[in-house]
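Q: How would the structure tokens look for this protein?
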Amino acid sequence: MEARKNPEYLRSIAAAVLEFRAALVEFLDLHVRNEGSGGWGGIARGIAPAVFPRDGTDPDEIERRRTKVSRLSGLAGAAVPLTNIAIRVQGVGVIDPIAAWQTITQPKPVLEAPDILGACDQALGRLDGLILEAEAELPPAVGAAAMHSLVWGAAARLWRDGHFREAVAGAAESVVAMVKTRTKRNDLAATALWQEIFSNKEPESGKPRLRWPGDPTHQDVITMNAGLRFLAPGIQMTIRNNAAHSTSELDEQAALERLAALSLLARWVDECDLHEAPNSSTT
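A: Here is the predicted structure in token form.
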């Protein structure tokens, strides 16, 4: 995805600019500005450095803060081409205010501290605008994060760490737990549970069933109920059991396809009606 159209990337650059700006302010706290009056003001601006260390300041602390600003300028500099905050300096040309920040401490500085701080503020404002534009142009959410909330909620942390098989296993367990909670059936192993709740038998006391909504004599409803009767245990045996008991890792695509199956099953379970026997103890 193009950088200017990726909201998460733009947010990371904005955060980097904020960190750089804050570190620069900390660095400037140990300095006085050559502003043309009092103190260092007798030294010609444009020839002498734009800032001087305060009297009595620990040189090691100045160097520590300088190093921090330099390090943070690396990522923050990505904001310059994105936001067009380069500064044109007469007789010098176009200057990157973040990359050139150290010139304020050198003779004949091409920039002054307010130039750099102002450029950071401008970059942050423009990044906010780019983020809004990028979010407005985003296509509908697809992929793992768009799965059923229960499935992705159980898988997300492991998925982001690259543990795809464990993420699938965790998601499968969460779907089973959801069904156990809804039916109050904690007395069965998972595969048997799926077979019981989608059984074509009438509900019994303590044995509710899940049924696709609609007229039970309608062919579409009959088909869905029959399909779920085989699909749910099949997903349990082929996806959950394999993910839970295998020691081999899944690649991302294979894991994504398994999460999609679990997500679809979870959505269909959500849509089903719970049928209970009269005076059932599960009510």
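Confidence is low (pLDDT under 50) at residues 37-42.

The CA atoms of residues 205 and 278 lie 8 Å apart.

Upvote if useful.
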